[in-house]
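1st attempt posting a full record on here, be nice pls
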Amino acid sequence: MTTNRGWIDWKDGPRVQRIEEDGRRSPLPLRLDLDNHSPDGFAWGYGGSGPAQLALALLADVLDDDAEALRRHMRFKWRVTARLAIDEGWTMTRDQVLEHVGAIRAEALAQEAGRGDATE
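the predicted structure (as tokens):
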């Protein structure tokens, strides 16, 4: 299972690495092509542009659906990346990302149903 790992490099700042099942490691792409929240890179632990860029990059990577990643990333930011400890490292598996996305999708459906916008 793919895992993402974030840590603070005190020389170069926050870093996020994608770790494949076979152990291969690569930097998580910023995905500035989708939205340019933070050209300086990722961050976490607060509600700013770095956590938004991280949310977008994680969703684009895991969902493999850029349009959905764009639709959902701000909710993911507030639900996940803004809540990570600002000065600590973290790990998040693909399944954990998908679990949060499932909850976000359910919340969106419930909101649509409450407004009468739901389609059958």
